[in-house]
Amino acid sequence: MIQSIIAKKFEIDHLMSNFCQIAYSLPKRLRSKKMPLSKTMPLPRLFLLFLGLTLILGMILWLVNSIYRLYISISFTAPIFANLLLLLIMALLGLLIYIFVYYFYLSPKEKKSRRKSRQISPTTLPPLQKTEAAEENLKAIRQQVQQIQDQVSQQVLFKRSQEIETNLARGELQVVIFGTGSAGKTSLVNALIGEMVGNVEATMGTTEVGETYRLKLKGLAREILITDTPGILEAGVAGTEREKLARQLATQSDLLLFVIDNDLRQSEYEPLQYLAAMGKRSLLVFNKTDLYTDEDQQVILKQLRERLKGIISSADIIPIAANPQPLQLENGQIFSPEPEIIPLIKRLATVLRAEGEDLVADNILLQSQRLGDEARKIIDRQRRRQADQIIDRYQWIGAGVIAVTPLPVIDLLATVAVNAQMVVEIGQVYGCEINSERGKELAISLGKTLVSLGVVKGAVELLARALQTNIATYIVGKVIQAVTAAYLTRIAGKSFVEYFRHDQDWGDGGISEVVQRQFQLSKKDEFIKAFVVDAINKVVKPFTDVWNTEEEKDEDDVELTPRSTSTQIQIPDDDW
């Protein structure tokens, strides 16, 4: 019986040792990650982890002896019950460790994967929900358009939103033919609809505007609209304008047929990659294959598949001959072969039947999102202009206040007050209503950052050098503080613009990174030259005029003072 108890004790010690190793290895495993623990999980969670592990280890050390004694006392009278109790305790300890492992290690991973799945969910929405999302975007765009002050931009965006709204109810699939001017786009359209619809000569600039034709495909409920766009990469101003139209039509398509007649050139690859990155579904049509041998065709196709890997699938790279060259027979007659576009028609039918609804919904949603982005950019530029006007006004107000307040304490209080009011007005431009107290807090916080980063010292040295080359030396000491205050107010204002643009957030780098970036932008030579010119006109000259007036007044007062014939009144040297 004693030997059995001793054996059980060794078994308990062994099990407890295993639990200790598991508990000890948990932080070690976390440390083996590429990033430190402080980056893996939040600091409070990290603190709780180590506190919990410490408690578990302490409990295990205490329980080893307690469980051993409990087992001995019970095993003499009820050995089976002692074994069950031992297993139960081991299970509870294991469960406790698992809870900690799950809470601190597995649970964050699951939350991260759920967040990731939510981020990609819009692309997997059914067509109906995509359409509803587009409608919500259009409502938001109308509200944004009302904030735009430029009437021309406002009308353009409103008209485009109406066009997108009209497209929501349309029943056609928009297929756009896109490519260089001589790749055979019009010939492809001719072959697809089975009749002549335009000039098929291979001259550049044949199609000057987007021409649309209707096509009915068997087994497809929606009617297909095929748009033949102007060619890209054409020379001259007119060619550039036509290319802009072609690109615009391409971005509005449900399905894009990108036509080439040789291996893909870099000038063709770039727009194709851009459209694919935008989310446009594309088929690459390798036209004029009748001009190549079978071996050359295979070489070109292989190169295309390798180069477009990850952009366009191999099944969507289709060789055709939309308008084969006539052949002269042995008897001297000219034979005109039929177009070889059956592979394209089959692939086109497969894609449209399987993905047609999704393509229409994706296109509508994409257009509404792009229009919303454009509206936001216009509003952002508008707000920047308004904020710049506020900054320009307050930087010279601050300079003037500093110029007429000689006491340092008053200078500091005046600067804080000016910057605080500037912050309040910039916040109003960006729709953030903050009070003067909050504005003062932000101004003081940014002022401390300017000092701690050495921006104040750097600004003084920078402007002192610039001013000494433009004005008299004896004037520099009078105005350098005022001009520096204006310069620092500008940096502060630009920093607050970034703060409000990002929804009152300084970003990952914090306030220091934003201030440093604005200081570097304001150190550029062209800006400093323009700023010094403004400072001379708005600070130096007015300040000099005031100083000269006061000096003349002092001299007049001295001259009017009664003098004795025997005593000369000594006029002290001017402090300036």
Q: What's the helix and strand layout?
A:
Layout: H1 2-31, H2 37-40, H3 43-75, H4 79-120, H5 127-145, H6 151-168, E1 172-179, H7 185-193, E2 211-215, E3 223-228, H8 236-251, E4 255-260, H9 266-278, E5 282-286, H10 294-307, E6 317-319, E7 327-328, E8 334-335, H11 342-404, H12 408-429, H13 436-452, H14 455-468, H15 473-501, H16 510-522, H17 525-559
Parallel strand pairs: 1-3, 1-4, 4-5, 5-6
Antiparallel strand pairs: 2-3, 7-8
Helix pairs in contact: 1-3, 1-4, 3-4, 5-6, 5-11, 6-11, 11-12, 11-15, 11-17, 12-13, 12-15, 14-15, 15-16, 15-17
Main features:
576 residues; alpha/beta; six-stranded mixed beta sheet; two-stranded antiparallel ribbon; 17 helices; disordered C terminus
Number of helices: 17
Strand order of the largest sheet: 2-3-1-4-5-6
Secondary structure: number of strands: 8
**How much is the radius of gyration in Å?**
39 Å
Q: What fraction strand?
A: 5-15%
Low-confidence spans: pLDDT under 50, at least 5 residues? 5-41, 111-122, 198-206, 558-576
- The helix/strand order is HHHHHHEHEEHEHEHEEEHHHHHHH
Largest sheet entry: 6 strands, mixed
- Shape, please? flat
Helix content: 55-70%
Distance from first to last alpha carbon: 107 Å
